[in-house]
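TL;DR need structure tokens for one chain.
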Amino acid sequence: MLEFSIIHADDRRSRLERWLHEVLRGAPFALTPASEDASFRRYFRATLDDGASFVIMDAPPEKEDCRPFVHVARLLHGAGVHAPEVHAADLAAGFLLLSDLGTRTYLAELNAGNADALMRDAIEALVRWQLATRPHELPPYDEALLRREMNLFPEWYVGRHRGLTLNPAQAQVLEGIFATLVKSALAQSAVYVHRDYMPRNLMVSAPNPGVLDFQDAVIGPISYDMVSLVRDAFISWEEERVLDWSVRYWEKAREARLPVPSEFAEFWRAFEWMGLQRHLKVLGIFARINYRDGKPKYLEDTPRFLRYARAVAERYRELAPLARLLDQVQA
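>> reply
TL;DR here they are.
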């Protein structure tokens, strides 16, 4: 068992171990990497001699703010959703000691045989989360944020990754698409939105699922988390299954009296257009993570999001110009 006093070239890890020694009251622990993150955060697992384990978030305060995580964790617990408990925190240093929800992510565990059962649990937890919505607890998913996210696409994917500058006609097309997607998003009923409610951030646990990576939660479009769940960055499903799960969510939301449209077709259109906003954002984010942060592996999944985006754009007359623009960008 490694002792806390080992000195590392990594100064933050040394500080983290000293802090852990204090909050664990001197109990010896082994510290190992727990998971990777697309942000500046990193996670460790501390295992004690008695077998108990905790997850530690290391969030450099000049890069990340732990306070939203602590706040949203409280909201999730209040909603009856299984999220990590915050056992200790040094917000100034950017250290959190969290309960350990295990190592079995939905992303690793999902297969054709268990997908329906796992998705059913995820949908039920999502409905509970949305039902807990209260005003003034979370920032709004407003037009400024929606546009800021989509602008990552021309800046980082088109400009940096593809090395292209949109001409005035292309820029006008993209602005028209952005305006259409923003209008659709803001027309939806507003509920709590996790913003990354996807298989990588859900854990197979008891109760199921455990929910992680929720610090960017907002109040916003009711379809957002559902489209994040079933049109994921790292795993794709046939459209029949996506449609089936979306219908199941819509039916459960209706039963719970959540403010979804009374007709599924209306919800489905909002769902698809919301997904397109997210797909454009993620294309930009994955390029930014590569070029700014030196994490190239995310770029491997950009073809998935291009397929998502093109499929939606081709299904709706209002979005057809985007399909042509994507072809030009990829040419």
